[in-house]
Predict the 3D structure of the following.
Amino acid sequence: MTANVATTCTDPVILDQWHPLLPLDEITTDQPNTAVLLGEQLSYRLDANGDPVVWLTADADATPLPILVEYLYVWTCLGSPPDRLFAIPEFSEPDRRNVHAGTIGVHVSAPRAVENFLDMGHFPFVHTDVLGAEPHTEVVEYDVHIDPDTNDVWATECVFYQPRAATTSTEGQMSDYLYRVPHPFCVILYKTTPLDKDRMDVIALFCRPTAQDRIEAHMFLSLLDPDNTDAAIRKFQQTIFGQDKPILENQHPKLLPLDSRAETPIRADKVAIAYRRWLSDLGVTYGVIPVSPTSASVTS
Amino acid sequence: MTDPTTLTDPTTLTDPTTLWHPVATMLDLPHRHIFHGQLLGREVAIWRADDEFINVWENRCLHRGVRLSIGTNDGTELTCRYHGWRYSNRSAGCTYIPAHPADAPARTICNRTFAAVEKYGLVWSGEDPIGKPPIVAALDDGTPFTLRNLPVNAPSQVVLDQLRQHRFQPVASLDANTARMTATEVNDYAIALTSTALTSTETDTTESSTAVFFVQPVDSDRSIIRAVLTEVPAQVEQLGVLRHHATALGKLVIAAETAAAQLPPPEPMVATINQVSLALSVMPEPMLDRQAPLRVQVARKWITAQDIVGFELVSVGDPLPTFQPGAHLDVHLPNGLVRQYSLTNGPGDTSSYRIGVKLEADSTGGSQCLHNTVREGDVLAISEPRNNFPLRRDSLRTVLVAGGIGVTPMLAMAQALKPMGLAFELHYFAQADEHLAFEEIRSELGDAVTTHVGLSPDETGAELARLLDGYGHANQVYICGPGPMLETARTIATAAGWPDQAVHFEYFKNTTEIDNSSSFEIALARSAVNLHVPPGKSILQILRDSGIAMPSSCEQGACGTCVVPVIEGKIDHQDVHLKQSERDAGDQIMTCVSRAAGDRLVLDI
């Protein structure tokens, strides 16, 4: 019944991306383990030098797939990958805490998860008394643009009242947010930190699509937080994501519809609208319901 | 009668989208629950409101597709779990979007609804059902007794095929196995079976029981059997009857699922999700014309008189700004309308704003929205308080005349005058005692308030003539009420010798028909700009179209917010805000409705 969403990926745009397999420090043995990416089963292990190696499980020759180790993760690609992954310069700053906060399977498409990550309006209702609280429900006007050099989607000037924005928060604050989409299935947010008003915490969601309607969601953080333990940071992040998961799994359809007439946007959805158009312009067909030619005439 | 042949050819079946199907039992709809049902591949959210209305809706929020069945049923509305959008009982219209208290678009977002009827203890619905739910004479004539529903992993026609061979015993002989079965097809998704006991003598002393089996097509490979007995079994027999049917149907389910497993898996049904309208698919433009910088939460909503609801509004952000007695607010409503309400607050009380809203019989959605939709806890956008009805506080005598809900600014004025020790009297005209609002404020004002209840228009005129008899130096009268009463009061005051400057009034609305057919030029003296005002457009619109930020409020010539000084040119006044002396002076214009009488106006902006 779900055969059409479990089949292998034929979308060249997605095949040629780097995808996050898992955190590097979770590959600990030379015995092969497996993980699924875009409907393909991959095997991975440490080689004799202690470096990670990844191959298609079905490949009798175990020809290594291209890999990249970046932002604490091992990235791989089933097609022809670009030379480099998108840049997160904060990762290299010496006083940053770089933490991977866990991997959670979610029965939803990657772009639905990205769109949820871009959304401030749900904070008071889904992350009640943590990232938002009634009556502070308003999403005030913010700006959206596409970076002409990197082609990243940006949402800037985002502001939202948060009762407990981070592990380091002791009271409510107006949080400033920047959102950035540098990859069809990866999204980064930059937000005010209580500890340094001139710099921002970095929180990213790296999705590994296992099928069109299923992901393994990796959470990466680069924080200005000298005090909290990794465990406390992970617990906070996993609590947040645990609140999102049941919402995401109750979205219908699970694939993100790119036709503008599929759902009803409000002004708070400005960045989501830009993201959907951007996916359309990139020609992404995996994990989405593309605009059908018959409805294209009414979407402009 | 039980011909175990192949399945019915699906092409000969009635189009199932035109039929009524059961989708739930009434037991699935307990108080304030939302039941997740499915019919013909489509998920539905089924919920019973406190008024007993049964709603069958597409099970997804129009915003981001989240299932409404994980939301909240509060008895009158269903709230989506994701962003708190509220959808109304019956209409399924979206009534509140918490992310945008300020610029709610004036558009109707409405979820897809399906017909719903309760019958035989079941809830019936359908994609596009024709006529009425199956009418089964045996059930209509009897006392229907609904059995527990039974899900089956088999196509509906496989289940029906099994039902045609189904056997059970009449109530009187549950332990036997000799009953004669007769079947009557109700429609392609329902069958009635009668079990008749054979007595040993095969005489006419027969006993029979009838059950009707409705098969709900959930998807192409799943069904739910919903069986209804025509008679309620006697109390002592019920357990036995239930056991008997459970056992028999349990066997049927195994047989149906076994038969289904032999068939190739059917294609899943595709329930088309309707496109949203073109108007709803585009992001609404931000509302820039009418500024609403303040965010308030409804802290209290109470009935202060018949058809009048009080609202107490507290700030969500910064402290509320101060105000003058007579001031009003623009309240931006969740349905996109903007309405003006006078503050009832006493002087210096900025802990909250308190307004009164009368439910207008001919409401175009403003007072109805506030009465029926807005509730405690909601966030609203409001303007800063504006005062176009200022109170002089240097008078020897102040007469406040209020008609109906026109009492609200008068209460603010009276509370301002009282602590100053200035002589004032508040005359409150109302149709009946139960229409008198804000008792708690009036009681604080004591003897200064006189109520005039149940007077005819003539009696009201006579009373006003008595009250306004004899103008004295430094007397002022303030009048707020319905148009006819206001006209009467103004006429009487003039006749009694009150000068124009001593008579102050505020209309609820401008009932004169606006004639905007003229076309003319406007010259903006300070900015040296000339603009053309064509028929159908107001000066206010033309100024805004040229990028000039203009304040406005009621936009119908009643409140006075959009006033602009005039240097030159004759004015066609169409507002009800200006007094006759102000009109005659010809040096100001209400830009929302008034126009040039000639072909040119020079404005001092």
Summary: The interface with chain B takes residues 1, 115, 121-122, 124-126, 134-139, 141, 246-247, 250-253, 257, 259-270, 273, 295, 298-299 of chain A (CB under 8 Å). Chain A has a mean pLDDT of 93. Residues 3-76 of chain A form a domain with the N-terminal domain of TfIIb fold (CATH 2.20.25.680).
